[in-house]
Specification:
mainly alpha, 2 helices, about 90% helix, about 0% strand, CsbD-like, YjbJ_sf, CsbD
Length: about 55
């Protein structure tokens, strides 16, 4: 996984965590769910990149 991809995934994960916390604090379930989704997408990308790296 390239450094740029790692940075993008880390940023996406951090944004997702922030959305989840803000959604929880403000009782905004839609924002909280969006944050969890963003974290899941980031995790899936990380797994995909790791698999791609191992196959290369």
């Amino acid at each position: 996984m390239g450094i740029v991809d790692k940075a993008k995934n880390a940023a996406e994960d951090a944004i997702g965590k922030a959305k989840e916390v803000v959604g929880d604090v403000t009782d905004n379930s839609d924002l909280e769910a969006e944050g969890k989704k963003d974290q899941g997408v980031s995790g899936a990308k990380k797994v995909g990149e790791n698999i791609k790296d191992k196959l290369s």
